[in-house]
Amino acid sequence: MTAAELLEVLWRDYTAATPQAARIHQLLTQRGELLCNDHVALRSFAGDGLGMAALARPFEACGWRPRDRYELAASHLRARYWQHEDPALPKLFISELVVDQLSAAARAEVHRLLAQLPPGFAERADLAWSGRPWQLSYAAYERLYAESEYAGWVAAFGFRVNHFTVDLGSLSTFPDLVALDAFLVEHGFALDDRGGMIKGSPAERLEQSWTRADAIEVEFDDATVRIPSGSYEFARRYRLPSGELFHGFAPSGAEHVGDAGDAAAPGA
Ligand code: NI
Predict the structure, then answer these.
(1) Ligand 1 centre from 102 Cα, in Å?
(2) Residue 228 and residue 225: Cα distance in Å, rounded?
(3) How far is ligand 1, taken at its centre, from the CA of residue 228, in Å?
(4) How far is CA 3 from the centre of its chain?
(5) Which pTM value belongs to this model?
(6) Of all residues in the chain, what percent carry a pLDDT higher than 90?
(7) CA of 235 to the centre of ligand 1 (A)
């Protein structure tokens, strides 16, 4: 699989769960923009061979190289990003939930999910877009979600892209995120404004905005329910004093964990 094919598979899977991303992509393209992505974000549970390293495998085979690691203690996450030598390709941001840091009840819920995995599941070449490999009830989802939005999301959606992020620097008709955000609102899209519409700052070398999460119907054991799926993200990067563009994810507040919400969680 080439890098382009890999990204195409991920985009199709992502927009199936987050259709607003395809609509916004089309809206910007119709305006004449040629979009590049800043990063693609994946999520996992740590342990059982399922964490960051397992999800990164197909990307490393296509030339992405691991870069900085982050610890996001408040949200019980570890994260790392990968970068490709082709600057036109997005960075890959993978996070994993440190399940051991959750309450005993939430740990037990997650272990009930992991116990359903068939042997060899973590070795699947298509792990990063394999979807949800376990059964769960809506009640179990709600309990997990109440403790950790991130845990609820992975439980409900399994292994798939959480978000794509447009690189503002690739756009020619928007000078900044303020202009892009205003355009999106004008076209009927809702942006997550908890903590302000723009997260991060020039001092952190990274500013980001993202839409409020889409909602899609998800089948649980006992019910089919519309729950928050994913948002579409927009990032503006700034230059370091050296003149080089900053490619990292500032440890405080740069990369959101979630979509459904919990943007408040610092990091991820
Ligand atoms: Ni992101």
Answers:
(1) 23
(2) 10
(3) 16
(4) 18
(5) 0.92
(6) 89
(7) 8
- Per residue in 233-256, pLDDT (tens digit) is 999 999 999 999 999 997 655 455
Tens-digit pLDDT profile for residues 91-144: 999 999 999 999 999 999 999 999 999 999 999 989 999 999 999 999 999 999
Q: 118 C-alpha to center of ligand 1: Å? A: 30
The pLDDT, as a whole number, for residue 259 is 40
* Burial class, 140, CB count within 10 angstroms (exposed 0-12 / middle 13-18 / buried 19+): buried
Q: How many CA atoms lie within 13 A of 182 on its CB side?
A: 7
